[in-house]
From TrEMBL:
Highest rank taxon of the organism: Bacteria
Function: Bifunctional aspartate kinase and homoserine dehydrogenase that catalyzes the first and the third steps toward the synthesis of lysine, methionine and threonine from aspartate.
PROSITE patterns found in the cross-reference section: ACT, HOMOSER_DHGENASE
ACT domain: residues covered: 304-376
Protein name, as recorded: Aspartate kinase
Pfam families, per the entry: AA_kinase (PF00696), ACT_9 (PF22468), Homoserine_dh (PF00742), NAD_binding_3 (PF03447)
Subunit (UniProt): Homotetramer.
CDD domains: AAK_AK-HSDH-like, ACT_AKi-HSDH-ThrA-like_1
InterPro entries: AceGlu_kinase-like_sf, ACT-like_dom_sf, ACT_Aspartokinase, ACT_dom, AK-HD, Asp/Glu/Uridylate_kinase, Asp/hSer_DH_NAD-bd, Asp_kinase
Signal peptide: none
Pathway: Amino-acid biosynthesis; L-threonine biosynthesis; L-threonine from L-aspartate: step 3/5; Amino-acid biosynthesis; L-lysine biosynthesis via DAP pathway; (S)-tetrahydrodipicolinate from L-aspartate: step 1/4; Amino-acid biosynthesis; L-methionine biosynthesis via de novo pathway; L-homoserine from L-aspartate: step 1/3; Amino-acid biosynthesis; L-methionine biosynthesis via de novo pathway; L-homoserine from L-aspartate: step 3/3
GO biological process: homoserine biosynthetic process; lysine biosynthetic process via diaminopimelate; methionine biosynthetic process; threonine biosynthetic process
Length: 800
């Protein structure tokens, strides 16, 4: 025999009601069943509300009339129940009081009506059934509102009752209600219907209790809050009990205990998705121990502080007793070894009462200042990781801090494995997602805000969208682009921008300031934030500090951030350190080539890098590799380099030597040299009259460059070619290095002379490597390689 329990939500609409009937029909074909029901939908709340109106002498009658008119009350004679309710409400209104005893009698009608309505509909569907009033066999004491069941008496009464029932008839039993030995109606408190179902399962030795809810089972976290929460397939009773203690709303310790006697399995199922196997709770040991996250919000933290408390015995007892006397329950407790302060949580609704009780109890101590403060922090959430001990708590903790969520306090249970963390309520959803991603090997969400969607930025967005799902499979990392912005507008979508982003930007982007993006990320509780700068803008760099302070890691292909003043360079790094954030910019030198990382590692390991020289610019490499040996005007080759995406948005940034200068400076600063940009000796290849005009005008008149460069070519000694090179000379001992860029002639058969396409070539000279430099060579420019390099930086950060 199986016991099937249906909650109020399962009976709340015509659609769910049909499902309930279908489930009962299917299950009754498989085995004998007993059905336990809660009141339909919000009935309990409505009845309570009508009683409250009546008690306060307000118009209760119209709400009561509406209740009676509900559609599922139509085809059944509920005259007796409605008459009783009418009398009870009238009485409550007359005496302006609703005692717990009267309230129980009022509320019990909800379950009675529910069992009658369901039985009626089952019979109409040719499923023989009978409505059964559990007050005939669930016997309780007279603690109205939360009555204690006399289990042994109830057991024998239940068994006798069910032995008398005709076979092949489906009993539809009222949950939640019982009666005293004198026959007075009682209710069983929170989760009362589940408790009734568990008791019946035990008394009748059911093979399984199936609890039909509105969710597919128990999840690793509330799926409304954590998108990738996973259903837990199986739990041991003890684990379920642990979850129940930490606020899993579909479980209550009271409902598990009756199942332990006969080890009756409990299955949590979904009325709307009955084929799903749900979560099975049984005596079977599970492999991994549970891991689940629960969240209690609407909690307040009380801080009790006093310098005169050290060593005084009995202060804690006074705190707790004064609260106990007010019926206030305490949640998480923390006291430091100095004994000067005690922090603990209470329900927010009871916080003021708690403060008053403490102020009264410690009135004298407050006067003498032995107690220096009793303060309250509202809007706290308690996040509990069930199944977690401190041995592996480092990761979730570090992830919280990295996301700028600093727990107000945390607490671990000495027995069992639970860690509770107190955070501000507005941070709770983000905290839940961060920890969930860390401890469940499920995809970790990385939320990306991309600024600049030109050549590099646009290519990067396409690369991410094309590979996101394979990255999720291989690396358990979900890359979510929630913002794409240019110099004016931003497109925002917390669930991720998709393949049609170009059209979407046209239709849906809005003017913005950086604070709008930061606010959007906060309001949507987005975690693991990365801001990516694929602009060439110096004004965008002004946003770096606020982005870092707001919890973003940074990545940039833009070189400006690393090449403005040394003081900004330092300030940014200090801000990053203070905020536990990272800044990666591998593409700043050599596009996708692994140059910066190599230099960083060599330098960090103490290697003295004395010189770095070579062809630093991919575009200038392309231009001079081709122009030197081809009989084509300079402007044609330059136009080709622009079209291939090798140049900066304004190609004068390359031709002026500034871009090479920036690269030299970035490397110099990696070596702890404190150079400024103005100190670089740069050869500018742009004729003066073309230096000050605007970009479109310059791009229109590229042929004005031809005669100057033609002359350079004519002047070449035969067997040599033009190359634009950079050189950095420095030393560990020096404060500054010597940085120079220039156009030179090199033998055509030298390493530099042999360069092809947009290849860059870097020779890194160090003390250990002597005269044989480390050489890094490869494509030094191009949107695809650069975007790949930025992508690499994203994955590096995501892995941390
Ligand atoms: N091409 C290459 O081989 C390499 C390039 N890089 C770097 O990549 C970066 C991007 O280059 P590329 O894609 O060619 O440039 P593009 O000109 O094609 O794109 C630049 C993008 O940045 C946007 N933008 C400009 N100013 C701002 C601002 N203040 N705020 C937000 N967005 C802004 C532009 O938008 P709008 O249309 O509104 O101006 C545009 O979408 C440059 O810094 C470059 O140095 C690095 C290594 C190699
Ligand atoms: N314009 C740059 C692009 C890479 O930084 C170059 O040509 O190297």
């Amino acid at each position: 025999m199986k016991v099937l329990k249906f909650g109020g939500k399962s009976l709340a609409s015509e659609h769910t009601f049909k499902n309930v009937i279908q489930i009962i029909e299917n299950k009754s074909k498989e085995s004998e069943i007993v059905v336990v029901v809660s009141a339909i939908g919000d009935t309990t709340d409505i009845l309570e509300n009508i009683a409250e109106l009546a008690k306060n002498n307000q118009d209760y009658q119209s709400t009561f009339n509406e209740f009676k008119e509900r559609v599922y009350h139509k085809d059944i004679n509920l005259e007796a129940e409605f008459q009783l309710l009418s009398k009870l409400f009238e009485g409550v209104s007359l005496i302006e009081d609703c005692t717990p005893k009267i309230k129980d009698l009022i509320l019990s009608q909800g379950e009675i009506i529910s069992s009658r309505v369901l039985a009626k509909q089952l019979n109409a569907a040719q499923l023989r059934s009978v409505s059964i009033d559990s007050r005939d066999f669930i016997i309780t004491d007279d603690s109205f509102g939360n009555a204690i069941v006399d289990e042994s008496l109830s057991k024998s009464k239940t068994q006798n009752y069910f032995n008398e029932l005709p076979l092949k008839i489906i009993p539809i039993v009222t949950g939640f209600i019982g009666a005293t030995q004198k026959g007075e109606t009682t209710t069983l408190g929170r989760n009362g219907s589940n408790y009734t179902a568990a008791l019946l399962s035990n008394f009748l030795k059911a093979e399984e209790l199936q609890n039909y809810t509105h969710v597919d089972g128990i999840f690793t976290a509330n799926p409304d809050w954590v998108k990738n929460a996973q259903k837990i397939e199986e739990l041991h009773f003890e684990e379920a009990n642990e979850l129940a203690n930490f606020g899993a709303s579909i479980l209550h310790a009271k409902t598990i205990i009756p199942l332990l006697e006969n080890s009756t399995p409990l299955r949590i199922l979904n009325t709307l998705n009955p084929k799903n196997a749900g979560t099975l709770i049984s005596a079977k040991a599970t492999d991994n121990g549970i891991k689940s996250l629960s969240l209690q919000s609407d909690v307040s933290l009380i801080q009790f502080e006093g310098r005169g408390l050290l060593g005084i015995v009995g202060v804690d007892a006074r705190v707790f007793t004064s609260l106990a006397n007010e019926g206030i329950s305490i949640g998480v407790i923390s006291q430091g070894s100095s004994e000067r302060g005690l922090g603990f949580t209470v329900k927010q609704s009871e916080a003021d009462k708690a403060i008053k009780a403490l102020q009264k109890e410690f009135e004298k101590d407050l006067y003498t200042k032995d107690v220096s403060g009793i303060s309250l922090i509202d809007d706290i959430a308690v996040l509990s990781i069930i199944g977690q001990d401190l041995s592996t708590f480092d990761k979730p903790y570090a992830a919280l801090v990295k996301n700028k969520i600093i727990p107000i306090l945390f607490n671990n249970t000495v027995t069992g494995k639970n860690v509770s963390i107190l955070v501000r309520k507005h941070e709770a959803k983000k905290a839940l997602n961060v920890i969930h991603g860390q401890i469940f090997g499920v995809a970790k969400n990385i939320n990306l805000a991309l600024f600049g969607h030109g050549l590099v930025g646009g290519t990067l967005i396409d690369q991410i969208l094309a590979t996101a799902s394979s990255i999720e499979k291989k690396k358990n990392i979900r890359l979510n682009i929630f913002a794409i912005g240019n110099s004016k507008k931003v497109l925002l979508n917390e669930n991720g921008i998709g393949k049609n982003w170009r059209e979407d930007i046209k239709a849906n982007s809005e003017n913005y300031q950086i604070q709008d993006v930061i606010r959007f990320a906060n309001e949507n509780h987005l975690e693991n934030l990365i801001a990516i700068d694929n602009t060439a803008s110096s004004s965008f760099v002004d946003n770096y500090i606020s982005l870092v302070q707001s919890g973003f890691d940074l990545i940039s292909s833009n070189k400006i951030g690393n090449t403005i003043s040394y003081s900004f360079y330092k300030e940014l790094r200090e801000t990053l350190k203070r905020n536990h954030k990272e800044y990666l910019y591998e593409t700043n030198v050599g596009a996708g080539l692994p140059l910066i990382d190599t230099i960083k590692l060599l330098h960090l390991s103490g290697e003295n890098i004395t010189k770095i020289k070579g062809v630093f610019s991919g575009s200038l490499s392309y231009i001079f590799n081709n122009f030197s040996i081809q009989d084509r005007p300079f402007s044609t080759v330059l136009q080709e380099a622009i079209e291939k995406g090798y140049t900066e948005p304004d190609p004068r940034e390359d031709l002026s030597g500034n871009d090479v200068g920036r690269k030299l400076l970035i490397l110099a600063r990696e070596l702890d040299l404190k150079n400024e940009f103005q100190e670089i000796k740069i050869q500018n290849l742009i004729p003066e009259e073309l230096q000050a005009i605007d970009t479109p005008a310059f791009l229109k008149g590229l042929d004005k460059l031809d005669s100057y460069f033609e002359k350079q070519k004519q002047d070449l000694v035969p067997g040599t070619v033009l190359r634009y090179v950079g050189e950095l000379n420095g030393d560990l001992q020096e404060e500054k290095g010597f940085l120079e860029t220039k156009l030179i002639a090199v033998p055509i058969n030298s390493a530099l002379g042999q360069l092809k396409g947009s290849d860059s070539l870097f020779e890194i000279y160090t003390e250990s490597y002597g005269d044989n430099p480390i050489i890094i060579q490869g494509a030094g420019a191009g949107a695809a390689v650069t975007a790949r390099g930025v992508f690499g930086d994203i994955l590096r950060l995501a892995d941390k």
